[in-house]
Amino acid sequence: MHSGQKQELASLTGRLRRESRKITGPRAAILEILRHHPHPLTNKEIFAELPKGGGDLATIYRAMQLLEKLGMVKRFDFGDGTARFELVGEGDDGHHHHLICTRCAGVVEIAECFPEEIERRIARTNGYAGVTHRLEFFGICPDCQQ
Amino acid sequence: MHSGQKQELASLTGRLRRESRKITGPRAAILEILRHHPHPLTNKEIFAELPKGGGDLATIYRAMQLLEKLGMVKRFDFGDGTARFELVGEGDDGHHHHLICTRCAGVVEIAECFPEEIERRIARTNGYAGVTHRLEFFGICPDCQQ
DNA sequence: GCATCAATTGCAAATCATTCGCAACTGAAT
DNA sequence: ATTCAGTTGCGAATGATTTGCAATTGATGC
Fold first, then answer.
1. Distance A131 CA to C19 C1' (A)
2. B132–A138 CB contact, under 8 Å
3. CA dihedral A49, A52, A56, A59 (to 10 degrees)
4. Cβ count near B103 (within 10 Å)
5. Which of B27, B30, B45, B115 could share a disulfide with B41, CB 3.0–4.6 Å?
6. Is A25 helix (H, G, I), strand (E, B) or coil?
7. Do A49 and A121 have their domain in common?
8. Distance C14 C1' – B125 CA (angstroms)
9. Sheet containing strand A73-77, strands side by side
10. Measured between alpha carbons, how far is B56 from B64 in angstroms, rounded to an integer?
11. What's the pLDDT tens digit per position in B18-72?
């Protein structure tokens, strides 16, 4: 998540419970991992962080799908064909963007967002409702510039 | 392409020739199809437009890779795990965005772009070089709103 | 505590988009 | 017409993601 301090695990499990979902070993472990990582993680990366025998890759895929549906994680697409996920703070919608190094894949979180009034104009002009956007920046980070 | 009138096929084949690439049946057919479609097409869609026996899907994948490298087509990512391509006008870099209906997948081309000065500031603030962005809008089109 | 049952997991097989190896083929230049 | 690098068609390999299914396991009520 990007909004600041780590969420309590209790707050996370509470959200699951409210949906009559089970707090299982794999899910708790996944949430723990996400809670400790400030950057978007791929399912494989989460899998690698899991203690051996701590869960199956398919379980992670299913967990992320559920967590995304519940709005607890946000899916990001860096254009490399692999989904990445970040924990979303309660009350937050997790909307933000990233600046990704095309050499080392380093990620920086970006506060700036596409101007709302322009988005509204785009929506109005074309008659579209509920318009949102997906935006990511790419470049070469300081280290990779040599 | 988005910049206006259709390009002459001759101009396209000329660009290939300049790179000592062959103007083969499949490639000519693909360029013809792209020339007649104002919207981003998936490789499968291109394949479907091809006359039966007019080419293999793998050939299309290879052709799009080549055309992208030569800057003749631009790849777009609508976040559904399938690449889409649009012809790029000569002298143009093809940079533009889309507004995609999440119900019917209808696509509208958007002229607006992320403000350059903000992008520059993002690049400078983080020390990144050669910063670009990927931006697409999503919403529900007039027809799909009922 | 313990039974109960839906939710969940592990594992393997199935999908999907995309890439690759390779022998056969074909433009383009001579 | 000859020649050869660039291409194609196939089928097999990848890689990410999904799914079927039987076995397990939280959460709830007693």
1. 35
2. yes
3. -50
4. 12
5. B45
6. helix
7. no
8. 47
9. A41-42, A83-87, A73-77
10. 12
11. 987 999 999 999 999 999 998 999 999 999 999 988 999 999 999 999 999 999 9
Nearest to A138 among B79, B110, B133 (CB): B133
pLDDT digits (tens, 9 = 90+) for A18-67: 887 999 999 999 999 999 998 999 999 999 999 988 999 999 999 999 99
Are A57 and A43 contacting, i.e. CB atoms less than 8 angstroms apart? yes
Select the residue from B74, B84, B126 to test the A interface by mutation, using most A Cβ atoms within 10 A: B126
Q: Which of A46, A77, A81 is nearest to A60 (CA)?
A: A46
Contact A55, A48 (CB under 8 A): no
Residue with tokens 């772009």: B113
Same domain, B81 and B42: yes
**3-class secondary structure, B132:** strand
Token pair for B27: 């490639």
Amino acid type, B90:
E
The CATH code of the domain that includes A124 is: 3.30.1490.190
Tell me if A100 sits within 8 A of A106, measured CB to CB. Answer: yes
Report the domain count for chain B: 2
Which residue among B101, B108, B138 places its CB closest to the CB of A134?
B138
CA of B30 to C1' of C28 (A): 20
Nearest residue: Cα versus C1' of D28: A20
Q: Is B81 on the interface with A (CB under 8 A)?
A: yes
Beta bridge partners of B84: B42, B76
Both B142 and B125 in one domain: the answer is yes
Collapsed DSSP state (helix, strand, coil) of residue A2: coil
The full DSSP string for B73-121 is EEEEE-SSS-EEEEE--TT-----EEEEETTT--EEEE-----HHHHHH
Instruction: Compute the distance between CA of residue B34 and CA of residue B49 in angstroms, rounded to an integer.
Output: 10
